[in-house]
Amino acid sequence: MSDASSRPAVTYGRYLKLEELLSLQQPGADDPEHDEMLFIVIHQVYELWFKLILHETEKVKRDFSANDLYGAVATWKRLRTILKTLVAQVDILETMTPISFSSFRDRLDTASGFQSFQFREIEFLYGYKRGEVTGAIPDRESQRTRAEQRLLEPTVVDAFYDFLAQRGVRVPEDLRAKPVTEATRASEPLQEELLRIYHAQPELVILFELMTDFDEGLQEWRYRHIKLVERTIGAKKGTGGSLGIEFLKQSLWKPLFPDLWAIRHGM
Ligand code: HEM
User: Fold this and answer.
1) What is the pLDDT of residues 207-233, one digit of tens each?
2) Spacing of C-alpha 68 from chain mean position
3) Is residue 100 lining ligand 1, measured as CB closer than 6 Å?
4) Residue 157 burial class via C-beta count within 10 angstroms: exposed 0-12, middle 13-18, buried 19 and up
5) Which residue's alpha carbon is nearest to atom 42 within ligand 1?
6) Is any atom of ligand 1 closer than 6 Å to the C-beta of 225?
7) Mean pLDDT, the chain, integer
């Protein structure tokens, strides 16, 4: 409610900026293809989820640094649920046939998820630091800079090491001293420590399992995305200029938290 002297009432539409939001889906030119709307909406939705993943991951890093187990567990639960939702949404795009996609694929020109700076930010924030891929992001939109800055930031894994150290885990010095632009390394000494902790501090087990869920979720998304690509464009090259499936396969089955997977056989 509002009176004439006060600001207009906050409404559902204003709070969510719906007019702006709903004006952002603009299928190409004068002859939009029917499925182009689906293609635009689903990518925009993914980018919104990516935004939330980045937001929540910043929080989980702070939780780790503050040794806040319960805060971290709550946020990992949310993060892995978002990721499972991302995986499920692939089903929707798979209702689009290859013929339908090829009716508007040319309009994409060089546009590709390859240029998603938020996806790169997620990869880098989670320790999959492969600086060479930022070259694909257009620099005129200052998006490349965002991804490059993430490359220079400590990762969730670094914050996890801080957390573990506060819980009495001996985190090997070489992991703490690793250059910030390098990807996460698997470490046998850390795996031994984690195995010890699994038994000695059962309250941490739920955290490790939620992190493993998230990791598995990203691997599932990569697999589903490859299958989506395969059934939609087959062996064609990507609009982003990569070899397509062959490029995407390089990241398949690569865990974010290799130590949490490596200890399974020892339990
Ligand atoms: C018809 C549907 C789709 C096709 C044919 C497709 C195709 C491709 C191809 C071929 C690549 C490799 C890079 C390139 O050369 O372009 C790629 C990368 C990528 N796509 Fe898609 N894609 C589709 C849907 C999606 C959706 C819905 C998303 C969600 C955001 C997405 C996100 C990405 C990301 C993040 C990458 C980079 C992955 C990496 O570097 O490992 N794609 N896509």
Assistant:
1) 999 999 999 999 999 999 999 999 999
2) 23
3) no
4) buried
5) 113
6) yes
7) 94
